[in-house]
Design a protein that fits this description.
Blueprint: H1 7-23, E1 30-35, E2 41-46, H2 70-85, E3 93-99, H3 103-112, E4 115-120, H4 140-149, E5 150-152, E6 154-155, E7 164-165, E8 175-176, H5 178-200, H6 220-228, H7 248-256, E9 263-267, E10 273-278, H8 289-304, H9 310-319, E11 327-332, H10 339-352, E12 364-368, H11 375-383, H12 387-393, E13 398-399, H13 403-412
Parallel strand pairs: 3-4, 4-5, 6-8, 11-12, 12-13
Antiparallel strand pairs: 1-2, 1-3, 5-7, 9-10, 9-11
């Protein structure tokens, strides 16, 4: 591993990652984990939301994993490798990134406890979107944590931006040149709308989809769904936006197998349960039930829609919905006082990547609230997110309408 000696070298390193992302035609953002004490570059990654399928000369379907932002990937990379590489604790490391982290990545980094240093501002989806360093989207205690561990490097003339934030991150108090700052900012701006459109428009609308419940047992799409979740296509709700007691058993049985008692189901526009997964927080604290559900469904869909067999590709395209047309149902809503909740709503926004059909009820639902949480607190968190989430995606968590489902889950617990 190389050793970096300044904020400028750190930003140049992550800017190169952003260039690789741009060449891959995904969001042009890069990040790295750096040892505060030594300047050692531990890992560097870039965004992989859109990724070509290995071995395909022609890419038929690009969206790979809506959560595969550089920072989120770095957090999971750390937990996958910390013991093997004998890495320092997160509070002794800094994640340096080209762009102000989105809500998902901010929640991930705060959950893990990394220091964070940033080059450019994202005034639409970034957690410091107002550039005031007051983090209005974060719950009060989490806001204090961010203010004590995050920083935005100063930028030399002609930009002349002062250093903002804590000096705990690596190369605290230092500045970068205007060229590096503008590279980080402009390369992202050049990519964002094209990539967001590709992600948000990567599936057929419901009136053109076919019902996957009609697929035969030997269908590769049906087999992939069953491999993803044993409950796939075993449950159907009469109204996909109003699931009933039929969802209780999958949610409860899946949660019982999880280290943290929770689960999330994805229902398609036909009312089919496509996936119901729990979290893997024993492997990484950010691998919550929602993260596992949205990531695994997306990767499965991406794999099928890049299958060497054109018949399989066509079948996947005609039977598997984009999540924005489906309904996510949590057994327990995320606790709005935690960074995991910010991460979850951010990951939901990244999964949608744009406007969601405004149908009633919401396509982001939960059965129960955790602890002493109130629906108002959950709603307030959603309403305070950066503009991308409030204006474009319009994150609106709501409790399921079915009292029978609520009672069945309560009795099961």
């Amino acid at each position: 591993m190389s050793t970096l000696n300044s904020a400028q070298e750190a930003v140049d390193t992550v800017a190169n990652q952003a260039i690789h992302a741009a060449l891959q035609q995904t969001f042009a953002v890069g990040g790295a984990i750096i040892n505060n004490a030594t300047g050692e570059l531990i890992a560097a990654l870039h965004n992989n939301v859109l990724m070509p399928f290995p071995g395909n000369a022609t890419t038929w379907f690009l969206p790979h994993d809506p959560t595969a932002h550089g920072e989120r990937q770095l957090v999971d990379w750390y937990y996958q490798n910390a013991v093997r590489l004998n890495l320092p604790a997160p509070d002794q490391l800094t994640v340096v990134t080209t762009l102000d982290p989105c809500a998902m990545c901010a929640g991930s980094l705060l959950t893990a406890g990394f220091n964070v240093a940033v080059s450019a501002i994202d005034d639409y989806a970034g957690i410091n979107y107002n550039s005031q360093f007051n983090f209005p989207s974060l719950p009060p205690t989490i806001r204090q944590q961010a203010q004590g561990t995050w920083a935005y490097y100063a930028v030399a003339a002609p930009v002349s931006r002062p250093y903002q934030g804590s000096t705990r991150p690596v190369f605290g108090g230092e500045s970068i040149d205007s060229a590096g700052y503008f590279l980080c900012s402009s390369i992202f701006s050049a990519s964002v709308n094209t990539v967001r459109d590709a992600s948000n428009n990567s599936g057929l609308p419901p009136d053109q989809l076919q019902n996957p419940a009609t697929l035969p047992a030997n269908s590769k799409v049906r087999q992939a769904l069953t491999a993803l979740s044993p409950f796939a296509l075993t449950v159907q709700s009469t109204n996909p936006r109003d699931p009933g007691v039929e969802l209780a058993a999958p949610l409860l049985k899946t949660a019982q197998q999880s280290r943290v008692f929770n689960s999330v189901a994805l229902i398609d526009p036909f009312g089919n349960l496509l996936a119901c997964l729990g979290g893997a927080e024993d492997q990484s604290p950010i691998r919550t039930a929602f993260m596992e559900t949205t990531r695994n469904y997306a990767v499965m869909r991406w794999t099928l829609m890049n299958d060497p067999d054109p018949a399989v590709r066509a079948e996947a395209g005609h039977y598997l919905t984009h999540p924005k047309y489906g309904t996510f149902v949590f057994l327990y809503a995320p606790d709005p006082s935690t960074p995991q909740a910010v991460m979850t709503f951010g990951a939901y926004g990244s999964t949608m990547e744009g406007p969601v059909p405004q149908n009633y009820p919401s396509n982001l639902q939960y059965v129960l609230l955790p602890g002493n949480t109130t629906a108002q607190a959950l709603s307030t968190l959603a309403q305070n997110l950066p503009p991308f989430y409030t204006q474009s995606v319009q994150v609106a968590p709501a409790q399921v309408l079915s009292q029978d489902l609520i009672n069945a889950v309560r009795n099961g617990v």
